[in-house]
Protein 1
Amino acid sequence: MAQEFKLPELGENIETVDVTSVLVEAGDTVRKDQPVIEVETEKASLEVPAPFAGKIEQVLVKAGDKIPVGATILTIAPAGAQPEPAPAPELAAAPAAPEPAKAPASGPAPPAAKAPAAASAPAGVATPAAAAEREPAKVIEFARPQLGEPAPAAPSVRKLARELGVAIERVPGSGPGGRISIEDVKAFAKRLIASPAGAPAGPASAGAGPQLPDFARWGEIERQAWSNVRRATAGQMSAAWTRIPHVTQFDRADVTELEALRKQYRGRAEAAGAKLTVTAIVLKVAAAALRRFPKFNASIDAEREEVVLKRYVNLGVAVDTERGLLVPVIRDVDTKNIVEIAVELGRLSEKARQRKIAPDDLQGSCLTVTNLGGLGTTYFSPIVNWPEVAILGVGRAETQAIQEEGRFRPGLILPLSVSYDHRWIDGADAARFLRWIAEALEQPLLLALEG
């Protein structure tokens, strides 16, 4: 008997997805966990696998469809299932059964007549009673992936929280078991607006402002809809800029010696299937800096007026893709050597560019590193990736004249910047943090001594 397969929950706050590819057709035989469709969320592309082996009977979606969680994707006849009986042929009209005698008005109503038993029907013919008793198609649903305990809230409540720029996980629920209501979200947003930090902005406010003029009055125009990634980026950046009082500080590192070492040992990384890039080295240094300056490995809980200090070191890396900016997360960077970091960086970057990145790969970072050196830029002011409290920017290294003991020598200068949340981090903290990173890059032995 065919069973419906519905789109499972794919992650926190994911309510709808875009179908990018259908990988099966009606009549195909699939194995358990074989991908059947590819979908795209705001930040990731995912393959949705079959819940069991069987034969595809119907495919109910196509590429380009936008479907909600819970929508039926296809129907599958499980492997080994008995085929459905053929539809019963129409029978010649039987003589009408005599109408039962009416009971006297004063007497009790007669018991309802029972439907004829299926056994009394001709062989191979389904009676109306048997059809009515036929078991409906079962619904197969996936268990939610373990991406952390989700906040107990309905999709409409989550949608409102996103529109208001409120992190649903921070909203205290007043319902049974801490369930969060629309009123809870509104009350939480009002408290944030009244707080000194000001009101957070979300995707809805990213485009808020005066009405645009009619640009077509002055010439030809073209309108392009935002992609899911661009929409999510706009909301995140607007929320971060509104929530966080940003300050950016700049420094530079003489990486002449480091570049010589990188070229000398890059063959070891290549043997492991990776490239020994400046980004991989900076990630290792940044991880050591978070251990030395734990104030930067934190998140602010403004509602409780507390700071959450993290004992782990996960680093996000900004990756430029054709869909927009994605930030995969490398976990436990402080426990890995530079070659291991390079391998992981290459793997996650490729997954991001190939639209194979999973939602869990984009969560849990403590600090983000963004390197625009490959595009030729020098100094820039990155926006802190909320709920982090700092972001490290790296520009393109250039050969410059360096004065040393009254003489000039050529040196390879790497531009560095750090943007930070001034509610928690002071300028002196940021200066020490960035200078330590610069010195660790200038003197690789420092990382072994103090990192």
Protein 2
Amino acid sequence: MIFLKKFIYAVIIILSFGLGILGGMTRIALPFIALGIAFSILILLLDYQRSIYLVALYVFLDFFIRQYVGSPLLGSLWDELLFIFVFLMWMYKTFIDYKNRGYRWTPMEAPLIFFFGIGIFLLIINSPNIKISIEGFRAVVQYMLWYFLVVQVLKTDNGARNLYKILVLIGIFIGLHGVYQYIVGVEMPATWVDSMEKGLRTRVYSIIGSPNILGSLMTLTVPMAIGLVYGEEKIGKKLFYGIGSIVMMACLVFTFSRGAWIGFMVAALVFILLKDKRLIIPAIIAGMLVIIFVPSIVDRITYMLSPQYISNSLKGGRLIRWITGLEMLKEQPLFGVGLGHFGGAVAMNNDIPGTFYMDNYYLKTAVEMGIVGLMAFWFLLYQAIIWSYRTVIKIQDKYFVNLIQGAIAGMMGVLAHNFFENVFEVPMMVTYFWILVGIIMYLRTTKVEKFDNI
């Protein structure tokens, strides 16, 4: 078995060097060489579970490949290739790790498969254009599949902890970049701010390209970092994650994304309820200090309540989009207009007449999949949250309790943000959401169910 492991390592290393040589003969040499070296180093260090760490780097990989690799095909397929690679690592695990070779069952398989089944049912009975519907189904389901690989490829609590920390470190790094953008006053499209809003000099977006999605990433990772502040024992680490939390919160403020702010308030409330209700007073004080020192927050929120904003929004903004979506839902309430046929990227990419981004992922889901699809989706999300909560109240390891509390709070914040933005239309965000669910359910199998069965 040791020989087989070394043989597989050698084959992948040779392929990686071959990738580097291929890069040397093409105009995109540097990216290919970098990928070849990265995979070589990864395999030399592997432990198969480390392959899942690559998924946590989604935001960087996506940015790098789309910006610097001169191949549109690779830019659109790289995440599928990564999925295949991690899937092969799972298969590899069955050959080299007898102790962990069996399938690791969790409470989430049934609701996920149920939702997939509802999607296939709607695909069969309600597809005005089958090609678009299949693409729409893929866009909804594909990134949920990461859940299965996270649960199966992780093999140690240390691996779960590392994966969690990588997500937090990514949030801190991107948060720092966002703060830097605000300091230098990075340029932004004029359409990101209403013409009636004065004094808002910029909205940050980092490498993500969207203030709203950057805000959603901060909403997800800030509670996770605070969970590490509580979980770590060493003062240096507590200080690091504490400062990181402040940086990310500053970045969140500078996105000036009202939907992300609302999502973060939900995340903060959930974290307080899970951790310690006495934190509500410090949280209120901190919020008041932010309002005092960043008055543009008050301006942006109060403008949202003004007659001018409502009038503009009813002409070409979020409110008219919601009204249009509700009217379409009334026409086809049960099964919707068809997957991929309205309100999201698939419909926009296929130039379906009259479509636009809905700015409400749940309403978008309802219009495309009907009440049947929306209820199945909400049932899936309920199961993800309720099983995460059941895990955190039964786990005995205080370190992981803190981490899961942070994860649940961040997840709830993103779900709240979905009422005001198509957050789950962004592959990175839905991937990170299901990575966290996977981490929690993995810990459930090692920290809860193992002891329940004794």
Protein 3
Amino acid sequence: MTETVYLDIKGMHCVHCPSKVEKAIAKMNGVNLISVDYKTEKGRVKFDKGLIDISDIIEEIGEVGFDAKRTAK
């Protein structure tokens, strides 16, 4: 089943940071879409929750150097 989750992503310091997050998350098994906006510090991820959990995605964002937490749209 596909789920869409919105994230607050902190720690981005330049316009290239979103692509760093997007590249890391896009290659994870079960992720269908990742979109990150530098100006708003928001992200949207669409994933198959039968294959991956949002906690794994948030953990991976942390591994590339940013803090993420689930938020309302």
Protein 4
Amino acid sequence: MSFSIQLATDLVQVDPGASAPLTVSFHNRGTESDRFEIDIEGIDPEWKMIPVPVFSAEPNEEHTERVFLKPPRASESRSGSYPFVLKVRSLSTGEARTIQGVLEVKPFHHITMDVMPKKGFVSPFRRQNTFDLTVMNLGNVTENVQMTASDPENDCTYEFEQNQLALEPGQQKLSSFDAQPTTTRFISSSRLIGFTATGRSVDTPGVVASTQGQIEQRPFFSPMTLIIALFLGLLFGLWLWAMPKPPTIVFSTSNQKAILGSTIEVSWKSLHADKVKIVAMRSGLPGIPIYEGPELAGKANFSPSETGEYRLQAEATREGKRASESLQLLIEEPPKVPEPAILQMEAEPKQVKLGQPFELRYKFNPAVSRAVVGPIGLELDRSLDRIEITPNRPGQIEYTIVASNAQQMMVKKSITVTVVDQSDSIILAFDSTPPVLKPEDTKVVVSWQVNGADRVELTGPNGEVFLVEPIGSREFNVFGKTIFTLTALDKKARKTVR
């Protein structure tokens, strides 16, 4: 039983939200009919649709099937190329064929924005109003969004905290801007200034989002209210003069629940007080001071050193009068990060010639966020499992991998590699003829062959040294046991002796 498969194209382009057909050509080369199963591996199961997952084919029948690739139109369908494998398997024999393809998801752009509050106000005492812009990237490519704001009559100036935001697909960011009128009205009626905040993609100028808001410009007084205000102001002044105000205080925290090690911002505002005191209290323990002083409005940071429930107490005092307010704060343990582990560290080979590289093989558990091999100080790529290293000195060198996780917990593992400074010269042959002399013989012929040598020395009878050619032979008279030594030296004077 045998069969073959072929794709009409190995590159499928598709817009997110649409489906792209992929035609598979099939040829049953066997002599029997069979049923076959078709599947696609390597991409999200929700991205594929196989109308006929199992089909039949007669002997020598050519058959085509269509499958559909349909990534959803969502930020999760990132623009880019996604390799996949199409697999066809015989249900009778289990024989399978695979073929590779690439799904290219095309980019789409979509940004939205909203402004809060929808309506602000300015007055002679409040020269500017702060608005928050919420910008969200609903497309599948990164957008660099340039923010601007304007009104038809140019009655206000607009200053952004960040003029440009970089948004990943599906990401939402907050940007603030201040609106300030160009003129001040002291006596007039109120008026509304409508403005439009716009976000435009720097890379794709045609991608635009906008939102609208209003600013109410209030005068100091209208002609009618001026008289009333003067009269009421006089009455109010008499009332204030006759009735002293007790101190008041309000305060808040940036979070009511946080993890140990984080910083909590405490802000407060007090009236009619000359001193403010804020402390954090736990059951059975003395209070932890956060702020104590004359500032009636401000901010301070609180960094708890232990987990548990805290009660934050704010108190404002003046001339023996007191006002207080409290808030509850819960501090929890940070999530535990798994310890790093070096699962494998091997050197292949463990003995190399100076200048020759060896392969360092390694594996880590998922908790490892950074790994460095010493003594060379090279940071390892955790997506790979091996690297080539070339030693720069002879001897035994110990290489150590130091791996750490996100909380800087470390683990070490070492291995030793032997580096030899071996000569480049090689003695290919070194013989004597005859190797053993009869008592009546005194002559022997010594022959040799050497490669890669810069100098060749032959030590003969009585320790006499002869400078010889790399290839040659020489006759000697010997009268007893004699040892011949051949020494080959390379250009670095490294010896090979035989």
